[in-house]
Design goal:
The structure is a single chain. The protein is mainly α. The protein has one domain (18-127): 3 helical TM bundles of succinate and fumarate reductases. It is built from four helices and no strands. It has helices at 18-49, 51-61, 64-91, 98-127. Helix 1 packs antiparallel against helix 2 (51-61), helix 1 (18-49) packs across helix 3 and helix 3 (64-91) runs antiparallel to helix 4.
Amino acid sequence: MNRPRPLSPHLQIYKPQITSVLSIMHRITGVSLSIGSIILVAWVVALASGLESYSHFINITNHWFSHLILFGFTFALYYHLSNGIRHLFWDAGFGFELKSVYLSGSLVVVSAFIMTMATWSFIYFLRI
């Protein structure tokens, strides 16, 4: 009964693949969107509470660290959206070939980055 059982690969042996990394990122961005929605609720509550509350909220969000958090939230939103569209194609039965998986994974990351930069460029030029 003391036969040595085979061990499954663990993190020291296993090489991460693009599919596993993108899947983990999809889960992380989903959780961060859930947590980040608290910021959106705080914005709406401050807006509904009057000018003084809203100006206090704006003073907090004008800090560089708040901008970093909002930038991350924006990237998470676009990444999760792009990867969700990718999953919709998979649900329809398209894109399971290895070449398509790598291409669509790269497109997800690039499109999320481009949309994030476009959004923040628009915000920056809107403020000027």
